[in-house]
Design a protein that fits this description.
With 268 residues, the chain is an all-alpha fold. The protein is 76% helix and 0% strand. It has one domain (52-259): MetI-like (MetI-like fold). The chain crosses the membrane at residues 12-32, 66-87, 99-121, 133-154, 175-196, 202-222, 234-254.
Amino acid sequence: MKSKNHPLLGIHSLIMMVFIYVPIAFIIAYSFNSSRLAADWSGFTFDWYISLFGNRHVMEALSNSLIIAVVSTLVSTVLGTISALAIRKLGKKMKVGFGGLLYLPIIIPDIIMGLSLLVLFNQFQMPLGKITIIIAHITFSMSYVHVVITTRLIGMGNQLEEAASDLGAGAWQTFRYVTLPQIFPGIIAGALIAFTLSLDDFMVSFFVSGPSSTTLPIYIYGQVKRGISPEINALCTILILVSVTLIFLAQFMLNRGKGQKKQSVLPF
């Protein structure tokens, strides 16, 4: 017999969806409001989006965010992939130990990570700026990439690699023609997640940023302290759309990787 879900579960899910998405819907809707007053709808307009691109401070914050996100994504993707491949070869106890350490940046609160990194940079007398933000973003983004790649490696198994070795392939050939194609969707998904996390991060960036390294989330925070304007709503809407798009792309890549058939003919 098929078990039926209790009606209250559906009601609970609906309430949660309303609680999460209605505020976001208000931000998006009022980004098109021609009035500067958040409580007064006076017409539909794209003026606030147009004015964003003429705002020097917004463009500077956007430039900083993109530079930091691109660099930290590239480095964290490489390091996360290497760590996943390396830990895979370890024994069970060492794998659990090192894996647990790499999970820590995901588990600990952002405020603790930001404060600890700030103390570390102060100990080394590093001036706060783009470099410190990039290092901080690599620190937590690498863990997310590691988790995605590790999950992909577990799903892949060892059969194809063992078959490649039996057919005389070396370690590099096995990695290039067997392992890399199988985990590549996971690498892309991990990179997209890392880019999204870097682009959206506020708490860690707030602790380790300098006066000339304001990112978009920090800029939004500074502007909101003066009052919520339609320009801020427009900027938040753009960030929401970019983040959602990247997350959907990451999920698509993961699903595509799971759906791919394993190669039966090895190209060597």
